[in-house]
TrEMBL record:
<dbReference type="Pfam" id="PF00128">
    <property type="entry name" value="Alpha-amylase"/>
</dbReference>
<protein>
    <submittedName>
        <fullName>DUF3459 domain-containing protein</fullName>
    </submittedName>
</protein>
<feature type="domain" description="Glycosyl hydrolase family 13 catalytic">
    <location>
        <begin position="14"/>
        <end position="392"/>
    </location>
</feature>
<dbReference type="InterPro" id="IPR017853">
    <property type="entry name" value="GH"/>
</dbReference>
<dbReference type="InterPro" id="IPR006047">
    <property type="entry name" value="GH13_cat_dom"/>
</dbReference>
<comment type="similarity">
    <text>Belongs to the glycosyl hydrolase 13 family.</text>
</comment>
<dbReference type="InterPro" id="IPR045857">
    <property type="entry name" value="O16G_dom_2"/>
</dbReference>
<feature type="region of interest" description="Disordered">
    <location>
        <begin position="373"/>
        <end position="392"/>
    </location>
</feature>
Length: 526
């Protein structure tokens, strides 16, 4: 598999650092905690960890409000802890990706403190400052993704500043070349330390309309959707100039060899794939989030796979994401049984899979009492179901220990359920064993990594497809319904099934049975 880059062959595992492993009893996960669990991750069979932000931060948005881009928050440890983590990971053959948050800083970042100090400050133009509208109100109608106007009045300098998220997260002005240089230095700082790449936060939002035109109303808005969906984000996202920025980030990474640039981008596929750029000068992987809110049906997923595959530019490498810290967990979205089917899907599709911590043990969304809500998205728009605490609860290591072995203190969020790594490790039919088998299978079958995806078909509730590489061929079948089903299959041998007893059995050509909740991978003679 040598002609592929490591991030094309590999599987990425997202760690939400507050919730992975606490080492000092403060109830919040940290870098030494992650280091202590790297053996587990290596044994699981993943290839890279992406760690959500650990930079110094007032934590208004739990680290996505960065006050210093080149340091580590004491809550998570020290820069030395990070270096040790990186070193240990590399010795185990694991890569480490950081979360780069360039769209906005914290309002406590020295850059913003300088910028807001006076209209003449040399850093004034590093952020987006505008005069009030003639009536004294905000300069235009742009809405924040955390609710309300995206403009915050600054009484000292008598202008508004723009924040796509919280008022504590002012947007940087990426049209300013000094900002671009400063951010380039940030990338280089971490690349010099040896990080293997970045997941770039809200990459598609970096540039806003130069004329600050009002966004048009969204006539399809439905009550219950986030506030900013009242408008089409015509002038606040996916502006043509953003691609120039992506190109320059990519160029910087290229100077350091095989490092990966991943973009967080929530856009329809035709717009999403533009972020690959041309001839490899864009993001290596604009995150493909389609599975996060897909209608869970064979027909829908078949269409999604085909449309995505045919929309990808020639040079583009696909990727699939099943869960992250901003969306309900897969086991809560589709149920425990289908979450096993989803695991087979994720790890047999063409492209790099990204797993969210805890999904490998089937963690479900936690239930958070209303007086314990932590997430600013829920606090600012209560009752709208926007809260992200449920999918951020602590990793469940050992059900026999207090707080599931996550902390010896009081966890910052409650433990979601009794499922745990320890209990599942010894159970061959557990979700964890399934993930380990899948990761192992992927590693041993070049066609699952490098092969084409062909014959994608939905028949009733059954989704089938094949992966082929030279004379290697596997057939995948997933029962996405709630009953037993039948399917048309080629003759082969079952390499893996969610119904463990079937593994190793032969399938004869023709109609065969697929149990409720069954997904299988079979080798097929070519
Ligand atoms: C996307 C991140 O994933 C989310 O958690 C955060 O709130 C926003 N960007 C703002 O940084």
């Amino acid at each position: 598999m040598s002609e592929l880059a490591w991030w094309q062959r590999g599987v990425i595992y997202q760690i939400y650092p507050r919730s992975f492993q606490d080492s000092n009893g403060d109830g919040i996960g940290d870098l030494p905690g992650i280091s202590a669990r790297l053996d587990y991750l290596a044994a699981l069979g993943i290839d890279a960890v992406w760690i959500s932000p650990v930079y110094p931060s007032p934590m208004a948005d739990f680290g996505y409000d960065v006050a210093d881009y080149c340091h580590v928050d004491p809550m998570f440890g020290t820069l030395d802890d990070f270096k040790q983590l990186l070193d240990r990971a590399h010795r185990l053959g694991l890569r480490v990706l950081l979360d780069f948050v360039p769209n906005h800083s914290s309002d406590r970042h020295p850059w913003f403190e300088e910028s807001r100090s006076s209209r003449d400050d040399p850093k004034r133009d590093w952020y987006l400052w505008r005069d009030p509208a003639p009536d004294g109100g905000p300069p235009n109608n742009w809405l924040s993704r955390m609710g309300g106007s995206a403009w915050e009045w600054d009484g000292t300098t008598r202008q508004y500043y723009y924040h796509a998220f919280l008022r504590e997260q002012p947007d940087l002005n990426w049209r300013n070349p000094q900002v671009r240089r400063a951010m380039d230095d940030v990338l280089r700082f971490w690349l010099e330390l040896g990080v293997d790449g970045f997941r770039v936060d809200v990459l598609w939002l970096l540039i806003k309309d130069a004329q600050f035109r009002d966004n048009p109303p969204n006539t399809a808005y439905r009550f219950g959707e986030p506030d900013h969906h009242r408008q089409l984000q015509r002038y606040t996202e996916d502006q043509p100039e953003v691609h120039d920025i992506v190109r320059s980030m990519r160029a910087t990474l290229r100077e350091y060899g095989e490092r990966v640039l991943i973009g967080e981008i929530y856009l329809p596929v035709p717009q999403l794939v533009k972020y690959y750029g041309t001839a490899g000068d864009g993001a290596d992987m604009p995150f493909n989030f389609q599975l996060l809110n897909a209608r869970w049906s064979a027909g829908e997923i078949a269409r999604m796979i085909q449309d995505y595959d045919s929309a990808l530019p020639e040079h583009a490498w696909p990727n699939w994401v099943l869960g992250n810290h901003d969306n309900p967990r897969v086991a809560s979205r589709i149920g425990a049984s289908q979450a096993r089917v989803a695991a087979v899907l994720l790890l047999t599709l063409r492209g790099t899979p990204t797993l969210y911590y805890g999904d490998e043990i089937g963690m479900t969304d936690g239930v958070i009492a209303s007086d314990e809500i932590q997430d600013p998205a829920e606090r600012r728009q209560p009752g709208m179901g926007q809260g992200r605490d449920p999918e951020r609860t602590p990793m469940q290591w050992d059900g026999a220990l207090p707080n599931a072995g996550f902390t010896e203190g009081r966890p910052w969020l409650p433990i979601a359920s009794t499922a745990s790594v320890r209990e599942q490790l010894g159970d061959p039919s557990s979700m964890l064993s399934l993930y380990r088998r899948l990761l192992d299978l992927r590693r041993g079958h070049v066609e699952l990594v490098q092969g084409t995806i062909e014959n994608v078909a939905a028949c009733g509730d059954v989704l089938t497809y094949e992966r082929r590489y030279r004379d290697q061929r596997v057939f995948i079948a997933l029962n996405m319904g709630s009953e037993d089903a039948i399917m048309e299959a080629p003759a082969g041998v079952v390499l893996l099934s969610t119904v463990t007893s079937r593994t190793g059995q032969a399938i004869g050509e023709g109609i065969t049975h697929l149990a409720q909740g069954e997904a299988l991978v079979a080798s097929v003679r070519t």
